[in-house]
Design a protein that fits this description.
By secondary structure, this protein is of the alpha/beta class. The protein has one domain (about 5-170, about 190-235): 3-Layer(aba) Sandwich (Rossmann fold). The protein is built from 8 helices and 7 strands; from the N terminus they run βαββαβαβαβααβαα. A 7-stranded parallel sheet has the order 3-2-1-4-5-6-7, sandwiched between helices.
């Protein structure tokens, strides 16, 4: 069978369902779905990816690209959940991909890898030193490094997508979004997410890269040139952040908290760190 064979984990989640729609619209792409199948999809290969099993790993044989979306998606996820669903699970999927000779691995990373830069004015690129502020962001950084290492060791291409704010459903941007201006500035439209999925899975690419995937929003500090250079990603959606009076108060309060108790200060403001 010709065309590209793409295996998708986490295909029943918010990003997964949208990715599935985008990939199934392509006539030369065959989609394989694997995972817990929490929503009862009839074509999902049932598998507990937290525990490596050669039986479910057979599904990776003959696959060209793995799109790995499965994870605990909550920024407030506990270390226990993150270890099982975001670290162990991803390492198992990387292992299955290597053993099956998969040529490309696309990983759903997150803007939370750079979450500590919210209250700065710094431009955010792939080589910006990481500042995760929660277990979720730390887990994404860990798998980025593991994937790059595997790419260098085996020759498998590895793309890490640091995905912006893409809400479930219609995903309309506005003041209802969390994190105030910061959240709205990194909004990712459904259309731009679909473009990122298609291009990351099918566009010519070799090697390893970490790229930002957001829409072109006013005031955004996320560099998108790396995504354009790697896979030709050019967002078509744009949002101008809108803050109501209470949103401005919350934004100010969050900035004040960071000013008084900075999370990444070299020297503690009060007393000793240890």
């Amino acid at each position: 069978m010709g065309g590209t064979r793409v295996l998708v984990t986490g295909s029943t989640g918010n990003l997964g369902e949208k990715a599935l729609t985008a990939l199934r619209a392509l006539s030369d792409v065959t989609v394989v779905r694997i995972g817990r199948n929490s929503k009862g999809g009839g074509d999902v290969i049932p598998a507990d990816l937290e525990v490596f099993d050669p039986k479910w790993a057979q599904a990776f044989v003959g696959v060209d690209t793995v799109l790995h979306l499965a994870a605990d998606p909550k920024p407030v996820a506990t270390w226990e959940s993150v270890q099982a669903l975001n670290v162990d699970l991803a390492l198992n999927v990387l292992r299955a991909s290597e053993e099956a000779g998969v040529r490309r691995f696309v990983f759903a990373s997150s803007n939370w890898v750079l979450g500590g830069y919210r209250f700065t004015n710094q431009a955010l690129a792939a080589d910006t030193p990481p500042r995760p502020i929660n277990p979720y962001g730390a887990s994404k950084l860990f798998i980025e490094r593991a994937g790059i290492s595997q790419s260098l060791r085996t020759g498998m291409s590895f793309l890490s997508l640091r995905i912006g704010y893409c809400a479930p459903g219609e995903n309309t941007p506005g003041p209802q979004m969390a994190f105030g201006r910061w959240g709205q500035e990194m909004w990712l439209s459904n259309e731009d997410w679909a473009q990122a999925v298609v291009k990351s899975c099918t566009a010519p690419f070799e090697g390893a890269a970490v790229i930002n995937i957001m829409s072109e929003n006013r005031g955004m500090r996320w560099d998108l040139e790396g995504a354009r250079a790697a896979i030709g990603y050019v967002p078509t959606s744009r949002h101008i952040p809108v803050l109501g009076p209470m949103d401005r108060v919350r934004d100010f309060a969050a900035r004040l908290r960071e000013a008084v108790f900075p999370q990444f200060s070299d020297v503690p403001r009060f007393g000793r760190r240890w």
